[in-house]
Amino acid sequence: MNLLEKEELIKVKAEELEHATPEEIIRWAVETFPNITFACSFGAEDVVLVDMLQKVSPSTDVFYLDTDFHFQETYETRDKMEAKYNLEFVRVSPQITPEEQAQQFGEELWKTEPNQCCNIRKVEPLTRILSQYDAWITGIRRDQAPTRANAKKIEYDYKFGLVKFNPIADWTTEDVWNYIRSNDVIYNPLHDRHFPSIGCEHCTRAVMPGEDPRAGRWSGSDKTECGLHK
Ligand code: SF4
């Protein structure tokens, strides 16, 4: 399918998928684009989607970007999920180690040039892995941030050059936690310690009552996204 055909298909399906359940969207996505992958960051939305994928299409590749800077709790969540679902997450890592990064760009690049740090440890590895696929699935939701408010359930990702599915784009935080509780899904214990959004340890803090759920990401800077989602 060439780009024009994909754009036409997306146009036709966008409205229909808007009203479909996440499981229906995933089923249609994996049937239409067998060469598809899911990007898992082990946040609440992503553990929901891993659980759904295991029920709908357990052979679909699931990868995670290992920045080398995740919380220990995040790595433990990965290990527990691999054991529960008998699956192996594809580990995608940066081209340079944290030590090489410090030598080449200076210590604590996440403080001096966080965009460059994210480019090295997230955007380049994501670009590399996505170049192998025709479509990807993400856990982004419209109410997570103004930058995500217009996310469609299916769209063409011009940044990375493939079709993108956001099956729970219209879910609320409550929907996510209802699914986790009713399906006994493993989740990152940091969520119980006031970390609604979890990224690298260097750039994530707990939020205070009443704060925006993403206020704990790159706190103190004007950065709000890694560069993975437009
Ligand atoms: Fe670096 Fe922080 Fe981005 Fe992680 S979130 S890659 S530590 S700047």
Element-level helix/strand string:
HHEHEHEHHHEEEH
Strand content: 5-15%
In whole angstroms, the N-to-C terminal distance is 24 Å
Q: What is the name of the CATH superfamily?
A: HUPs
The CATH class is: Alpha Beta
Question: Any chance you could write out the topology, listing elements then pairs?
Answer:
Layout: H1 3-18, H2 22-32, E1 36-39, H3 44-56, E2 61-65, H4 72-85, E3 90-92, H5 98-105, H6 109-112, H7 114-130, E4 135-137, E5 154-157, E6 162-165, H8 173-182
Parallel strand pairs: 1-2, 1-4, 2-3, 4-6
Antiparallel strand pairs: 5-6
Helix pairs in contact: 3-8
The structure holds iron/sulfur cluster (SF4).
Iron/sulfur cluster binds near residues 69, 199 and 226.
Features:
230 residues; six-stranded mixed β-sheet; 8 helices; 10% strand; binds iron/sulfur cluster
Question: Could you describe the 3D structure shown?
Answer:
- By secondary structure, the chain is α/β, with parallel strands linked by helices.
- It has a single domain, classed as HUPs (Rossmann fold).
- The chain has eight helices and six strands.
- The protein has helices at residues 3-18, 22-32, 44-56, 72-85, 98-105, 109-112, 114-130, 173-182, and strands at residues 36-39, 61-65, 90-92, 135-137, 154-157, 162-165.
- It has a six-stranded mixed beta sheet, sandwiched between helices.
- Helix 3 crosses helix 8.
- It is globular and about 50 Å long.
- The two termini are 24 Å apart.
- The mean pLDDT is 93.
- Iron/sulfur cluster (SF4) is lined by residues 67, 69, 110, 114, 117-118, 121-122, 199-200, 202-203, 226.
- One of its GO terms (molecular function) is phosphoadenylyl-sulfate reductase (thioredoxin) activity.
- [4Fe-4S] cluster binds at residues 117-118, 200, 203.
- It is found in: Cytoplasm.
- Its main location: cytoplasm.
